[in-house]
Amino acid sequence: MDKKEDQKQIGVNINLDTTPILYTDNVLMSANEDGVTLDFAQKIGPSDQLRIVSRIGMSRQHAKKLLQKLSELIAMSEGKLQTNDKVLN
Question: Is residue 2 in a domain?
């Protein structure tokens, strides 16, 4: 049995009316012994101001999984225009 067969399928539902994709051009990251916080931000015009559009907090263990899966996704998608969605759990 290969790795893909070991992974169970997860159903993901999203309400497109209440869950927009927010553009970000900056990420502010902080961590301590309890976890990691990512503040996703947009630059406001030509100023040096940022507007936080989303804040995500997670455990250090989950952040390590995110780093690994994001690296895999980027490596897999280089040279491709679109990839399949990946669920991190």
Answer: no
Residue 3 covered by a domain: no
Q: Is the residue at 48 inside a domain?
A: yes
pTM here is: 0.70
Question: Which residues lie below 8 Å from residue 57, measured CB to CB, with a gap of 6+?
Answer: 35, 36, 37, 38
DSSP state letter for 71: H
Tell me how far apart the terminal alpha carbons of the chain are, to the nearest angstrom.
21
pLDDT of residue 1: 45
Domain count, the chain: 1
Q: Where are the alpha helices (DSSP H) in the chain?
A: 3-6, 60-77
44 pLDDT band, cuts 50/70/90, is very high
Nearest to 53 by CA among 21, 15, 17, 85: 21
CA distances from 42 to 5, 29, 30, 70, 82 (A): 40, 14, 17, 21, 23
Residue 65 within a domain:
yes
